[in-house]
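Appendix B. Chain record.
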Amino acid sequence: MRRFIGLLILAVLPVMAVGASELFDQVNSELEKGPWQARLVGKIVGPGGEEQEADLIIKALPAEKVVRIEFQKPDALADNYVVITPEKVYNYLFLTNQVIVYPREKARIEGLGFDLSRMGDLRELGEKGEVSWSKPKETTFKGRSVWYVTGNAADPATAGYARIEVWVAKKPVEILRTVFYSSSQIILSDLEWVSFEHVNFPKNELVSFPPDAEWIEKK
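Structure tokens predicted for this chain:
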């Protein structure tokens, strides 16, 4: 999880043609400059495969390798949040005031049919052979000039998805959208990145939980 959600936000990328590896590497370089926060909106599947509105706040401390996902939508997950570390994933459930803890390798996010915690560094996925990336193509998205990249998972059953699409704007350079598909081409997650900023916040702000919460450890 060294550069979790490495494709999500703004990056200073060259306008000339690049490979997917170089594209994602430059995104990671921008993200690793310091703590950051972003907002993602769109659609995501629920536990039963139903499509739901999604509105998420992502907070990250690259130096600490910690990411926090706060849910505003879907309504059933409002005020829930997830803290992801290299070793464990912590699900805080607001309605029951519980913290469900999973080992990183067995991680899941409660209440979703698509596990956002497995959206790792996309460049690293390519290097490990977990995803085969296409060469970025020039196209347009909502009237803007962009790079468009697709990736196929080597083992969809393990990855939890079969295919990924990514749109990266050229000027100003920023990630605009990512879509994850199942093996049957059902959309698991379709999210647009609507804001990003570098924000200074301490680690204890990201990993804090209510003192009276019940802790449940999963093996």
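Further analysis of this model is presented in Appendix C.
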